[in-house]
Design a protein that fits this description.
single chain; 96 residues; mainly alpha; Nucleotidyltransferase, domain 5; two-stranded parallel sheet; 4 helices; 45% helix; 10% strand
Length: 96
């Protein structure tokens, strides 16, 4: 869901190439696949692909969990925040 939301925001606000990184290998495979999925995540994958296709170019790359500290800090922040937040042109203090 977070990757889909990230691609959605990028498609709305950003007009450059986007590189999406995740430590979830199955998500990388799902988003890189050009074949239709037959899982309950099909609609999320389809939306993510559609958002990505609105960008000039995008890719999804695997990253090691220990290299993905910013994502884990943001996930922790999201769990402890009652409102939605988007940081444009800067990042939250927890990942600076």
């Amino acid at each position: 869901m977070a990757c889909r939301e990230g691609l959605s925001l990028a498609a709305d606000w950003y007009v450059r190439n986007v590189i999406l990184e995740t430590d979830c290998k199955s998500l990388v495979g799902m988003l890189q696949s050009k074949e239709g999925l037959k899982s309950r995540l099909h609609f999320i994958d389809k939306e993510a692909q559609e958002f990505g296709n609105r960008l000039p170019a995008w890719s999804v790359n695997p990253t090691r969990r220990e290299k993905n500290g910013a994502a884990h800090e943001l996930a922790y922040l999201a769990k402890h925040t009652e409102h939605a937040a988007v940081w444009h042109m800067r990042c939250p203090v927890c990942i600076e």
